[in-house]
Amino acid sequence: MTDILIRRADVVVTMDDAGRELAGADVLIRGGQIAAVGHDLAGQGLVAPGAERVEARGCVVTPGLVNTHHHLYQTLTRAVPGAQDALLFGWLKTLYPIWARFGPEEMFVSAQTGLAELALSGCSTTSDHLYLYPNGARLDDTIAAAAEAGLRFHPTRGAMSIGESAGGLPPDDLVEGEAAILSDCIRVIDAFHDPAPGAMVRVGVAPCSPFSVSRDLMRDAALLARDKGVRLHTHLAENDEDIRYSQAMFGCRPGQYAEDLGWTGADVWHAHCVKLDAGEIGLFARSGTGVAHCPCSNCRLGSGVAPVRAMRDAGVPVGLGVDGSASNDAGNLAAEARMAMLLQRVARGADAMSAREALEIATRGGARVLGRDDIGQVAVGFRADLAIWDVTGIDSAGSWDAAALLLAGPRQVRHLFVEGRQVVRDGQMTTLDLPRVIERQNRLARRLAG
Questions:
Q1: Which of 167, 102, 109, 168 is nearest to 132 (CA)?
Q2: Is the per-residue pLDDT at 328 higher than 80?
Q3: Strand partners of residue 11
Q4: How far apart are CA 166 and CA 181, in angstroms?
Q5: Which is nearest to 255 in space by CA: 274, 227, 230?
Q6: Is residue 132 a contact partner of residue 157, using CB atoms and an 8 Å limit?
Q7: Residue 96, pLDDT above cutoff 90
Q8: Is residue 36 in some structural domain?
Q9: Residue 60: helix, strand or coil by DSSP?
Q10: 281 and 218 together in one domain
């Protein structure tokens, strides 16, 4: 692989352990990794002859952003009438019958669309929580989409096993038998999971939520995941309805429910956690349990403001998630980082969270939540996942500081590298025929709406 030299960036925001921000600096990519960071790397003789050069004057370079929670299939159901103004449970009830009509093509194309949207927002690594498999759809469909798009991918094999007739929320035709769920978890882990450094695909186990699976499945999924050495993910404490359900059905709060079933620990991360109380925050901090904070979705569904400041102060690992595009309507991780910062300021004051801390959560924080020690920093030896932001446009005009990246903009990258491969060049996807993907996406959405 040819060396790539990113030259003379206005600022390289490294997110390294020293928190360095280097003005007028270069980054050298070699073999999918960051080989050097500093000034005039070519003049130091560090760059091989024939290296590709990428001019970064007028740009800020950051680590690629890390998305810790998504439902990629939902890009086909944005702004659905009847779900636009509903709380979580009513929102789900409206959308379940539509999702039941999906198949492999819908899963693949919606994933391509969502992955491209993430890439254009500077995201190089994303998880995905796919918990329904109608009409022959499989996790394999989204893994294939990610391979084409070129993003680092953490797909999770989700599941729902308790339908309406058994007291659950989803319709019976969208749930699966628990033995079949566990069997398919083993299949996809064996087929796709890569534990090696620099892995492009790591699979997780992810029963959907306390209101759609049994306690037995939660417990068995945790045992399976630990036997296979993979991570665990689910939704938890998303809103007041969620808390009431847990107390009525299980006689405890969600944190205790999770702990009782083996769902705390450094190999676990939960989505949302808007309603964690002080005791649950302490539990997560002591156990190293991670949180995927989804601020825009939490606003859209009226779930509330997650206590991220308290989580961070206690030492809870926190990353960002865009959540599904049926509850966010967008998949822009840069915008998510800004919203995370603003909501903490609304709740706690203007000094509650800085732009730099929000960017740290979107990079290093997400890497930690996903169990990655090889991404999230622009530092020697880390994987070459880099976002290059053009700050010469109108949204950055008059900016004094690199913090303007989240305070002002832009919200779309000029270039994005993943594992040293250029996925976005001059604001355009290089890996996908995006106009064709969008045409297919809109055709499928029209068919679903009809």
A1: 102
A2: yes
A3: 23, 60
A4: 17
A5: 274
A6: no
A7: yes
A8: yes
A9: strand
A10: yes
